Amino acid sequence: MAGHETQTRWKTATSRELTPTTLAAGTLIKLGLVLGLLAPAQALGQSSDDALAQRGKAVAQLHCARCHVVSPENRMTGISSTPSFMIMVAALEDWHDRFATFLARRPHPAHLRFENAPPRPQDSPATLAEVVLSQDDLEAILAYAEKLAATAR
């Protein structure tokens, strides 16, 4: 089929499906830990995981909370038809994959893009404020979702 792209997918030992996006996300976290890029958080008395999760919460509150409830503190915000972060991590077995691939899931592509991606088309609806995320932002949001999942158990 001309014009259709397929995305490469791999299975992990735990049968979790991986895509190039999720592989890149995991690689960047490991690289940051190996190179000591996350070490300043430890100097503040926080583990690097806690600091990354805190950053993820801040990014989620800034960009995701206009549609999602992202923390118990903002439980009265968001759009009622949009799942909250807490419900997704508690109720969905594939929550990790959903968070890792949210940029490709509708409606996110309409208003989100990575910082190095081409700008969105000029004919995009003016009512959708564009959100530009970095790979570090994605890593932080994933860390925050993992922390939510750990507290939900």
Automatic annotation (TrEMBL):
Q: Which SUPFAM superfamilies match?
A: Cytochrome c
The protein's matches in InterPro entries, at most eight in alphabetical order, are given as: Cyt_c-like_dom, Cyt_c-like_dom_sf
Q: Which residues form the Cytochrome c domain?
A: 51-149
What are the protein's GO molecular function terms? electron transfer activity; heme binding; metal ion binding
First and last residue of the signal peptide:
none
Q: List keywords of the entry alphabetically.
A: Heme, Iron, Metal-binding
What name does this protein carry?
A: Cytochrome c domain-containing protein
- Species in which this protein is naturally found: Stappia indica
